[in-house]
Recover the amino acids of this structure.
């Protein structure tokens, strides 16, 4: 069950396209109760010149994977883009991946994401999807990155492309006729490099509006659906009000429908968040996290950056925003040895509950938290037998384990309760 954070938005604009975090900063994330980083990578960093791969960039990226692993964090490798690439003043594709004339005629829009609708950005995306030779260069870059980090057990998945845009295509046919075939092609290539990793497929960012992507079940069962969620008004700085929770429900229902189109693929919301100082932000975050828990979905908050008045989880001085990280680090089960049927979280009462079938001879791992003590009760549903849970030796403070029952008791339902 992945509860994580993106690392980091600032990497888009760094000269070396790498996050600012040190090994100690990864340790601070683990100490806050997060267990995953969605680690941004960029095609322009891997292949700054056509036909050339930058070994130094790949090595530096791999070093950060190891820093995360040493801190006890899992890693989702994210191939990030915004407005196609660097030619439009953002991140993703290298300049050589599109026509310089399009960069020259482009006029930046406000807000920045309106640039997706310009003819220049549209033309670059259209070529990216249609040109086999260009797309093969993208696959080549991905293969190099995957091969470089494949040996790390901390790497659990490859997020194939951040927030793909459909260019001049019609939205529905784009997903089924253009984007899914390209995802299948890329997934197959990456599973040649790293057979044990999952692949994360993203649809369009319209998922925040409840739109359902018309995927069909993929040929490869190692596929995760990775939508993003931002309430459009809160994203742009509006106050959050409780009535807006119905819009979160609407968006999440659409994501669930897309996951069903993918044959019941697991859902991991790769980005969520908003400006942390807007009115009602704490309620907004709680409403999202409670709903994610009820659906048993993982998530990755955006982002681990330093900006007191922005989306970041840290202030300008690098200190954590307590009101954000305490909510992100709520007590929960982080590794569950069998299928979960029910999960709930209540910030009002401080209570977390989980029901699951103990299927595998492996421990249940909890994040108990480091703040107010969370009382732990793990009980067999059938006869009320209570199983012991203790702090996990050698792990980050706040990580607990519950030993599995006797082999004869496997296959039974258990209930976990964490509360003040």
């Amino acid at each position: 069950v992945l509860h994580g954070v993106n690392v980091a938005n600032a990497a888009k604009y760094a000269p070396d396209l790498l996050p600012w975090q040190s090994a100690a900063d990864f340790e601070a994330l683990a100490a806050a109760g997060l267990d995953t980083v969605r680690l941004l990578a960029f095609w322009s960093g891997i292949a700054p010149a056509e036909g050339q791969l930058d070994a130094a960039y790949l090595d530096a990226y791999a070093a950060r994977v190891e820093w995360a692993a040493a801190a006890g964090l899992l890693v989702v490798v994210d191939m990030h883009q915004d407005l196609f690439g660097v030619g439009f003043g953002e991140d993703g594709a290298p300049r050589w991946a599109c026509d310089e004339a399009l960069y020259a005629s482009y006029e930046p829009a406000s807000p920045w994401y309106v640039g997706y609708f310009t003819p220049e950005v549209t033309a670059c995306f259209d070529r990216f999807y249609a040109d086999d030779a260009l797309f093969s260069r993208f696959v080549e870059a991905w293969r190099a990155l995957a091969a470089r980090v494949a040996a790390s057990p901390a790497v659990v998945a490859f997020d194939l492309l951040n927030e793909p845009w459909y260019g001049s295509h019609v939205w529905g046919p784009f997903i089924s006729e253009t984007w899914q075939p390209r995802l299948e092609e890329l997934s197959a290539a990456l599973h040649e490099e790293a057979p044990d990793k999952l692949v994360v497929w993203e649809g369009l960012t319209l998922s925040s509006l409840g739109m359902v992507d018309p995927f069909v079940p993929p040929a490869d069962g190692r596929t995760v659906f990775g939508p993003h969620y931002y309430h459009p008004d809160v994203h742009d700085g509006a106050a959050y009000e409780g009535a807006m929770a119905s819009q979160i429900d609407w968006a999440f229902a659409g994501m669930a429908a897309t996951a069903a189109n993918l044959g019941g693929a697991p859902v991991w919301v790769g980005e969520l968040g908003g400006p942390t100082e807007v009115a009602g932000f704490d309620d907004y975050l709680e409403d999202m996290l409670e709903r994610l828990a009820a659906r048993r979905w993982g998530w990755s908050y955006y982002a681990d950056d330093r900006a007191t008045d922005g989306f970041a989880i840290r202030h300008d001085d690098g200190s954590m925003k307590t009101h954000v990280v305490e909510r992100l680090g709520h007590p929960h089960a982080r590794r569950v040895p069998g299928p979960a049927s029910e999960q709930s979280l209540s910030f009002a009462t401080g209570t977390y509950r989980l029901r699951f079938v103990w299927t595998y001879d492996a421990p249940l791992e909890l994040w108990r938290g480091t703040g107010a003590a969370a009382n732990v009760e793990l009980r067999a549903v059938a006869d009320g037998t209570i199983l012991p849970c203790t702090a996990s030796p050698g792990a980050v403070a706040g990580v607990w384990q519950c030993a599995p029952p006797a082999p004869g008791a496997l296959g039974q339902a258990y209930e976990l309760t964490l509360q003040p």
In short: The mean pLDDT is 97.
